[in-house]
């Protein structure tokens, strides 16, 4: 048996003692070292309460704290708003350069009037009488919680008040507030999410405006129905037509709440509105204006669009156009092209028309009207497919037709039976179905019938009105008799478009608003 010496045992005991002492020293050293930088503690929130119910901080004891109601301004319009950033709208967002801070304007020197002789009262009155009246100055535009100073352009955002926070994206609102006073024109597009021509039209108009040379303001909303646009759909996510729920109801359906939010936060700030649309359900439209020609201000707007066909229409109940007119805001609908496609000819025509309108309203420098005046159509009718099948057209948009002319044929792909569609009126093709499969009763050709001149009201100037008056009118629209064609309101609300009265009993239009 191998025996260990006492010296070996002592050496092992000493080694163990040294190891224990080193461990204790290391622990003391770590305890003495400073800890890492303290991490801020997360706020303790009550997750069972919505954010709007958070408690306000309580003032320390012994301090006088005024109620919140007393500190608030008397009028909402008097509340100070943050000034919107002045952006260069002719450049994409990623190319924007930081705008240098504006230099403070030098204050005029205060003259020393202590040694001057006082002016007699009569002489003072005479001087005031002879002095020229002060020129009207442009005012800041208060919109969507911001203040846009004169001579600036910016991007704001509108978001429906009923949306889920953090779920829906805000809708961009482009604003150009001119350096000179004038009316406020609003351009809206994609109220139906699948109508693309209006989006491009608004972009081209807004990004070519010079705020320093503009009189008044232009508000452009390229995509009103952002829900439908994201899905490539005409409707909202609840399958409702947004353009059947204006001016909206803050306690109604989702579509009514969205319509109410947009109408009162954007439209009510405008002097005039142009609502851009296209055909629906594989139909295309000749560029045309639709408006209530019994309203002199709307007649003035239609005459400002240059070479554009005009069709009289009151507008279906619930459309943005009709709700705005009932609120005292002259509004027209500009129809051009088909849904889900970008048509250069339609876009170019629309841009020229809006630029001409800006000139006619005195908002931009004058230039000669383009094109020859187009006729005004006071009545219109739809020619329908009497049988189902594949439709092929023999006419084109804008073509003049006479009663009995062949418009197109519908062929049954199973039986090979071909049915002709012939015009029942003398007029012009304002809208038509694209070649496709149709069901019996499908509205295929929209024919405009020219109006007698005595049916059209004389034009009247469109001027900037008191915004408060417009808001009061929008809050309590006047009770009016139902417009012609409202007998078809049920069909229009189901997704069909505006109903237009014609000389025939068949007046169900399906391609506007």
Automatic annotation (TrEMBL):
Positions with biased composition (Basic and acidic residues): 66-82, 478-491
Protein name stated in the entry: Succinylglutamate desuccinylase/Aspartoacylase catalytic domain-containing protein
Cofactor: Zn(2+)
Any Pfam family matching the protein: AstE_AspA_cat
Source organism per UniProt: Microbulbifer marinus
GO molecular function: hydrolase activity, acting on ester bonds; metal ion binding
Ranges for region Disordered: 30-85, 457-513
Signal sequence bounds: 1-27
UniProt domain Succinylglutamate desuccinylase/Aspartoacylase catalytic: residue ranges: 181-359
Superkingdom of this protein's organism: Bacteria
InterPro entries to which the protein is assigned, alphabetical: AstE_AspA_cat, N-alpha-Ac-DABA_deacetylase
Keywords recorded for this protein, A-Z: Hydrolase, Metal-binding, Signal, Zinc
């Amino acid at each position: 048996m191998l025996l260990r010496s006492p010296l070996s045992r002592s050496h092992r005991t000493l080694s163990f003692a040294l190891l224990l002492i080193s461990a204790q020293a290391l622990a003391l050293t770590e305890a003495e070292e400073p800890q890492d930088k303290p991490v801020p503690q997360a706020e303790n929130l009550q997750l069972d309460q919505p954010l709007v119910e958070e408690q306000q901080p309580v003032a320390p004891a012994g301090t006088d704290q005024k109620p919140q109601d007393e500190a608030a301004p008397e009028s909402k319009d008097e509340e100070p708003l943050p000034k919107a950033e002045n952006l260069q709208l002719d450049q994409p967002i990623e190319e924007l350069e930081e705008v240098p801070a504006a230099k403070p304007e030098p204050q005029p020197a205060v003259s020393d009037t202590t040694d001057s002789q006082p002016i007699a009262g009569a002489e003072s009155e005479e001087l005031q009488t002879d002095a020229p009246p002060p020129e009207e100055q442009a005012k800041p535009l208060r919109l969507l919680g911001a203040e846009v100073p004169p001579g600036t352009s910016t991007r704001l955002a509108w978001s429906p008040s009923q949306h889920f926070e953090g779920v829906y994206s805000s809708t961009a609102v482009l604003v150009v507030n001119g350096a000179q006073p004038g009316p406020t024109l609003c351009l809206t597009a994609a109220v139906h999410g699948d109508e693309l021509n209006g989006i491009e039209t608004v972009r081209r108009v807004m990004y070519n405006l010079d705020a320093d040379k503009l009189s008044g303001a232009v508000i452009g909303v390229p995509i009103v129905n952002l829900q439908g646009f994201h899905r490539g759909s005409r409707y909202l996510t609840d399958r409702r037509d947004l353009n059947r729920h204006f001016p909206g109801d803050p306690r109604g359906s989702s579509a009514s709440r969205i319509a109410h939010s947009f109408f009162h936060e954007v439209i009510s700030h405008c002097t005039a509105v142009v609502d851009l649309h296209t055909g629906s359900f594989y139909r295309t439209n000749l560029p045309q204006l639709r408006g209530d020609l019994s309203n002199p201000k709307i007649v003035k707007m239609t005459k400002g669009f240059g070479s554009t066909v005009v069709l009289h229409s009151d507008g279906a109940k619930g459309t943005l156009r009709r709700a705005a007119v009932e609120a005292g805001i002259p509004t027209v609908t500009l129809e051009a092209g088909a849904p889900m496609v970008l048509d250069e000819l339609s876009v170019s025509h629309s841009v020229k028309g809006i630029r001409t309108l800006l000139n006619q309203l005195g908002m931009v420098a004058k230039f000669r009207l383009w094109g020859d005046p187009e006729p005004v159509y006071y009545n219109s009718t739809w020619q329908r497919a009497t049988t189902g099948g594949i439709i092929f057209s023999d006419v084109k948009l804008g073509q003049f037709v006479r009663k009995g002319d062949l418009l197109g044929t519908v062929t049954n792909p199973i039986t090979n039976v071909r049915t002709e569609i012939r015009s029942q009126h003398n007029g012009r093709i304002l809208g038509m179905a694209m070649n496709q499969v149709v069901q019996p009763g499908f509205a295929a050709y929209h024919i405009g019938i020219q109006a007698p001149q005595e049916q059209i009201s004389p034009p009247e100037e469109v001027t900037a009105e008191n915004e408060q008056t417009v808001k009061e009118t929008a809050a309590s629209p006047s009770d009016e008799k139902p417009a012609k064609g409202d007998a078809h309101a049920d069909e229009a609300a189901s997704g069909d478009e505006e109903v237009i009265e014609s000389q025939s009993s068949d007046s169900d239009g399906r391609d506007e608003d």
